[in-house]
Design a protein that fits this description.
Blueprint lengths: L25 E4 L8 E6 L2 E8 L2 E12 L12 E2 L5 E3 L2 H9 L6 E4 L8 H8 L4 E2 L8 H7 L3 E4 L4 H11 L5 E3 L8 H5 L2 H6 L4 H22 L7 E4 L2 E2 L2 E5 L4 H8 L3 E2 L9 E4 L1 H7 L5 E3 L7 H7 L7 H4 L3 E3 L11 H5 L4 H12 L14 E2 L2
Helix pairs in contact: 7-13
Length: 373
């Protein structure tokens, strides 16, 4: 039987607070440095993952109990037995973390194979071992029930997650909500590898892997501060009538700043996107030095044919447009979305080259980005 627990409930337990714990001794709180959205408490034979209120880390919005000792919580159906052996992962981002942990073999269900770049999972899908289960909010519950996973990793939030979890509970399948996308600090987003590691008892490996990411990221960031030139940077493209630009406190803005760039909309200091008109972009971003993250465009001609007003921007005129399309698959999947959240040091590597290589001599050394021509 599977052990189900609806995690979106209101609790008031801090990772720093004491609790009664089945008579076992508390070992430690997990070694988390950057994340604002979860914490982990370790005990003898089990652990608890708490979802944090980012505005007040003393408050939590839910928890998951993971049990490794078969003698504990014997009659409790509100826990998950670990290590998990079979999972459904409803985002390619989760695949990236599981791949780093060496646990892609545990993935038995995905949302859509077209989004997946991982070669092992694509082969598993072709062989019928991995199944498509539908996207979040539109799950095919019959397919999910046939897989009967130890846990389903999803990213729905609030009432949507609670509704999905209740549907899964009818089949005895637990859901773990992974809201790493809410983290605006690139290292905080990458630190969610420790969340996934908890389900496999691979905390030591996750700590080691994250330490490497952190060290490399901070080294590139420190070097970028020494750059003489800090180019102004614009991002994204227009969809419909709106050009959605990231706020000045967003994940993208932080990457730009850490790589030595000056984000053109840094004054819009929120983390969410701002829907702006083409006219505002032409007024405020016309003379940007560099343009990155321009949708699905692969060439300069595609940009021009989409809207001739794009050609007015300085980066278009000077051919300094870069997009994260170097690792696209034939079906539209992009390794940037799959692996980059866990490897911001690789993104920072690319951006630091882009921002500090006006002669474009190192363009071939980019990992995710391509210089559009």
């Amino acid at each position: 039987m599977k052990y189900f627990f609806i995690i979106i409930i209101l609790t008031f337990v801090s990772c720093n607070s004491k609790r009664e714990n089945k008579g076992t001794a508390s070992i430690q709180s997990g070694s988390l440095k950057y994340t604002k959205f979860f914490c982990i408490k370790q005990y003898n034979g089990y652990k608890e993952i708490f979802y944090l209120n980012p505005e007040n880390s003393n408050d939590t919005t839910g928890k998951i109990i993971l049990v490794s000792d078969s003698n504990l919580f014997k009659n409790d159906n509100n826990v998950i037995r670990i290590p998990v052996r079979s999972v459904i992962a409803l985002s390619s981002v989760f695949i990236g973390f599981l791949d780093d942990l060496g646990e892609t073999n545990s993935v038995k269900g995905i949302d859509n194979i077209n989004y997946i770049c991982n070669t092992f999972l694509r082969k598993q899908f072709e062989e019928g071992i991995v199944k498509e289960t539908g996207e979040e909010g539109q799950l095919n519950m019959e397919k999910v029930a046939l897989i009967n996973p130890d846990v389903l990793f999803g990213s729905l939030f609030g009432s949507s997650a609670e509704k999905e979890a209740k549907n899964l509970s009818k089949y005895g399948i637990p859901m773990a909500v992974c809201n790493n996308y809410l983290e605006q600090d690139p290292l905080a987003r990458a630190e969610w590898i420790k969340f996934f590691a908890a389900f496999y008892n691979k905390e030591v490996l996750a700590d080691s892997l994250f330490s490497i990411v952190e060290q490399q990221y901070l080294a590139i960031k420190a070097q970028a501060t020494k750059n003489i030139v800090h180019p102004t940077v614009m991002t994204d493209v227009k969809f419909g009538d709106a050009w959605n630009v990231p706020g000045g406190s967003s994940y993208t803005a932080n990457l730009i700043q850490d790589a030595g760039g000056k984000y053109i909309f840094i004054n819009k200091n929120k983390s969410y996107n701002y829907p702006l008109s083409m006219e505002i972009l032409l007024n405020e971003a016309l003379d940007s030095d560099i343009w990155i993250n321009c949708g699905n465009f692969k060439t300069m001609d595609e940009i021009m044919l989409s809207d001739k007003r794009y050609t007015f921007f300085k980066p278009y005129k000077e051919k300094r447009i870069f997009n994260y399309i170097k690792q696209l698959n034939h079906y539209g999947g992009n390794s940037f979305w799959e692996s980059a959240p866990g490897h911001p040091e690789k993104v920072l590597h690319d951006l630091s080259i882009i921002f500090n290589d006006k002669n474009k001599s190192q363009s071939d050394n980019l990992i995710y980005y391509t210089h559009l021509k």
